[in-house]
């Protein structure tokens, strides 16, 4: 992520998820499954937004099979080796659900 080109403050524009986004999602998958009570067979990041603070806040839309999606809020620290932690999960989303902070 080019954090130098990103203004500190609000979330940036929605972008197509990439390999880095998918890796971040996989780091919190166990926590997501515990929060939602679902074991996801399909778990593919499709869109993301991020916000630079004392680290990076991510909003990520994840396709979890069929017409089902979930939204994840994930924080990645600038220090501690870029440690990633799940902040929140919003389930029962669709492909067209807006990717907004929650």
TrEMBL record:
GO CC annotation: cytosol
Pfam families per record: Cystatin
Predominant cellular place of this UniProt entry's protein: cytoplasm
GO biological process, one term: cellular response to bacterial lipoprotein
Subcellular location: Cytoplasm
SMART domains assigned to the protein according to its UniProt record, in alphabetical order: CY
Domain Cystatin stretches: 6-102
Keywords: Cytoplasm, Immunity, Protease inhibitor, Thiol protease inhibitor
GO molecular function, one term: cysteine-type endopeptidase inhibitor activity
Family membership noted in the UniProt record: Belongs to the cystatin family.
Protein name: Cystatin-B
């Amino acid at each position: 992520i080019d954090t130098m080109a990103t203004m500190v403050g609000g979330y940036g524009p929605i972008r197509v998820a990439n390999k880095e986004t998918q890796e971040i999602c996989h780091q919190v998958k166990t926590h997501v499954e515990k929060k939602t009570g679902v074991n996801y067979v399909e778990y593919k990041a499709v869109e993301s937004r991020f916000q630079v603070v004392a680290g990076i806040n991510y909003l990520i839309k994840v396709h979890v099979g069929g017409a089902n999606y979930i939204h994840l809020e994930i924080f990645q620290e600038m220090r501690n080796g870029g440690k990633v932690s799940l902040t929140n999960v919003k389930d029962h989303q669709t492909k067209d659900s807006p990717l907004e902070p929650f």
